[in-house]
Amino acid sequence: MKIGINATYAASDHPTGIGNYTINLIRHLARVDKKNEYILYYRYRTDEKKFLQAGFPSRRFEPGLGFLMPDRLDLFHDPAFKYIRIGKSRSIVTVHDMVVALPEDYTSEKFKKTQTPKLMKALRRSDALITVSRFTRDELVRKLGVPEKKISVVHHGIDTLLFRTDKKPAGPPALYKLPKEYILFVGNIEKRKNLIGLVTVFERVNKVHPGLHLLLIGRNGYGHETIRDRIRSSPRKDRIRMIDYVQSQDLPSFYRNARLFLFPSFYEGFGMPVLEAMACQCPVVTSGCSSLPEAGGRAAVYVNPFDTYDITNKTLNILENEKLRKKLIIEGLEHIRNFSWEATARNTVKVYEKTAGQ
User: Fold this and answer.
1) What is the reported pTM?
2) Higher pLDDT residue, 80 or 137?
3) Does 84 reside within a domain?
4) Vertex 191 angle, CA 171 and 246, to 5°
5) How many domains is the chain partitioned into structurally?
6) Rounded distance, CA 41 to CA 63, Å?
């Protein structure tokens, strides 16, 4: 079987989210699937060396004209919820979340207007769908009427080469000039991550633990201006540090040296940072809604993201209860054994074969 994958997001110099998903999927397909043939497609000018490690051929294309490509593919997989067909190939789309189709103010109206039709087209015209959580599958079925039999759930994995559980990394490089004790958040600086609530929680926690800092790692997203204004007006602003981007090889040390990982998001399609923190032996406090209980299992402390006092109390409990911290670390290491990119790749191949009728 000949399979095409849209690798455009994997070509980024600083991949996040969908880019990391695509990179890890391609890398592990090359390891676990020696039977099928793969071709990687990318939209923008890029360095083809990015794809050489997988050993797959790659070529540039224009998605809207994919039907004109001469390649005779059996399947084309788009990892970013866009419907693309190369020639007469069958089409598979990965849906990571439903943010663009939600009524909540989690992204701009302009973005919704451009991206919602693309999502709806993908849901309607693709031959099969992959979701990265049962939560997103159930949302598609319940809210948008997608037939459940069309959807396969394939969870993300953990990059075990990067997030080593058996090796303690050194502290973050000196160039970051970090404090000794901090609460960590990793994710886009955007409204749905509940960062204004997180800042409020930190202000209360910092009154009890004045030596503690808050470290936010992430790029600007929807509503970042309001979040930054809130931080600038905070009486604890000198204790709050923002870093736009951290090199992937440095990220594990940020997790490992944090007192805890605080992720009180309103909405997630999966929640990869939760697993990354657990892999680095960092206790996790996260929201008990959307997909996050699916990502965290029994190894996280769950909070109501709309109740900052609930978040504050549970954060303080972990900071002040060493026995609980150690329990969460042990349970986290056990929990992440359920997630690997090798399993993600193998389960994705099963979807390919099912969709192709093999």
Assistant:
1) 0.91
2) 137
3) yes
4) 25
5) 2
6) 9
